[in-house]
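agent: user wants the structure for Nucleoside diphosphatase from Talaromyces proteolyticus. delegating to structure tool.
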Amino acid sequence: MGKWRYGVILDAGSSGTRVHIYRWLNNSKARQGASPQELKSLPKITTKQDWTKKIHPGISTFAGKPEEVGPDYLDELLQHALDIVPETAVKDTPVFLLATAGMRLLSDADRSQILSQTCSFFRANSKFLLPDCDVHIQVIPGETEGLYGWIAANYLLGSFDSPEDHAHGKNHHTYGFLDMGGASAQIAFVPNSTEVEKHANDLKLMRLRNVDGSSQEYQIFVTSWLEFGVREARRRYIEALQESVSFPEVTEIPEPCLPNGLRTTIDGQPLPDETNSGSYLLGTGRFDECIRQTYPLLDKDAPCADEPCLLHGVHAPAIDFDVNHFIGISEYWHTTHEIFEMGYKDKAYDFNTYQHRVDAFCSQEWAAIEQGLSEERWGSKVNREKAFEVCFKASWLINVLHSGIGIPRVGIEETESSSHNGTKEVLQHGKDKGYVHPFQAVNKIDSTEVSWTLGKVVLYASSQVPAIEEDALPVGIGSNEPGIPPDFQYPSVELVPGPGPLVEESDSWHESLFGGESPRRIPGVLLFLLIVIIVLFFLCGRNRRLRMYHRLRTLFKRGDSSRSRRRLLGPKLPFIGRSSAAYERVLEDGGPDFELSGVDTDSDDDVQNRSTYSPSQSKRHSLKGSTTGLSSQAPPFKFELGNISSTSIGLGIAPSNALDRQGLVIRTESREHLVPTATTGSRSRTVSPTRSYRKSPMLRPVSDE
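agent: tool returned. relaying tokens verbatim.
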């Protein structure tokens, strides 16, 4: 594995799917030459602008046609990722497709079919690391999306690695996180210490790991509101607007959240002319009325079982805006900056200036706005659709931020209604009142887009760092309880303990053996090599082991007693030595005849031709199965028998006494091991025990030694 690790995250949102590719150093490389500050920091994640690609529409539109989601939709994003990630790193690069609110609105059957087709397509068309589809390809809860976003925002702002530079008072150094998409909205923040103790059961515990293996832990409150994104809020608003019409025959419905004079269908499509066969919306450009009519969508009157509550009766710890400073992304950025250009000049959110600019824009005649679009007065990214949606979105954001969450309306009393941006003035006044940057919309921090996908990668990358202690708790998210709670979410299935993948990074064994920082590196290498040698020894086969044994004996017996070497090696290593005692006992005592099935016999002439034994001839014979004749007149010899006991099949002996033997033959493991004998003209045929005087290939006279 190279020094770089990669991660591919697909954000399958309600309006489109975007692939994000991230990169970081593997832990071994990250530690080399790192300063003490860097060792106490989280892994450094990097990305590039062209590593991100987005397609439309949302993946949820493939409900009813899931077989098309791969080739007709995801293939473009998959090929983009394969173009970025080096080929050698693909197999070690995890791929995640995490769907959000758009998929949450589908039925269980539709969701399951789309996710199943997605997993099959990824596995069939790439070699990205995808060990478990249920973990890597899933619809994540809104709370998880909010927690990932909270990680991303604080990671980019530096509050994890340099808490002393972000001290907000009361021992608090992190930022709150706000996100709003098309279908849902999320909030995540760390309450002050008093609220943490009071609402411990309402919090989530998040654990991260630094480069040196030490941990960071945070207790976070997070919640999500489904149908509170801008698209779903707009749908609920139009339904309420239609119900407010007293007479069903009325076709023209006044709409204060549309620019004056703009006519659209109920579902928001512009009407090109006066002809219309059904109900339609007519914009009146009354932004103050728009705010009043969108306020009920917050559902602030819903019963609150546990005070305090935010939106829709959802309980939350009290937000201390002295220390809780919020970062808003997605629609909080696009709606406040794309048309009103606050991203280029302002450093903080100024409620009064923003509301005045929205009011001035939405009260214009639609014809004047169209003229401004053609002149690109609000930039090339602003089109007709964004222009007539921005008034509703702005009113909804203002209500959510200030009436729902309760963010202070900084500057509303101190600055006059003008186009002047009073950011600097209101921030100074905010400091006097104890409010410092209560809310700021952002898109990028240090040239990196703030996306919850980054938070997912930070969590995954830190989980790949080996813990500094053996009993350290794992990286992940769970209930605010000691140890590992039942609902603990691991960053990847590879990290789940118990049966299945072990909690280790894929190259941890390599780093443990060969990594420079491991104190057990040399013993580990030696142990590893010893295991390899033992395994290869037993795999090489009995004959090869026997040859190796004899070669070692030849080396050992030079200049020493062969008998002592045999006593040293033979009896103690029965799987390679010779068991002479068993055979000598048979020779001396006699025993039953042993039959060797399926063995050919030599002719009597061949036996007679080979009836004379010479020691020099025996030494030339192969151990693989050559035979040597043994004369009945020869002096008695002691023989050794290797790897065969007295009851083994394949041992044929019909002796009358130790001096009168008819012969011995050993059946080898295969017929290919039988080779011609040293006698000229003889055939390579196995000898019958009842007719041969040749000795077994496994026998050697002691006198030869």
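agent: one observation worth passing along. The first helix runs from residue 27 to 31.
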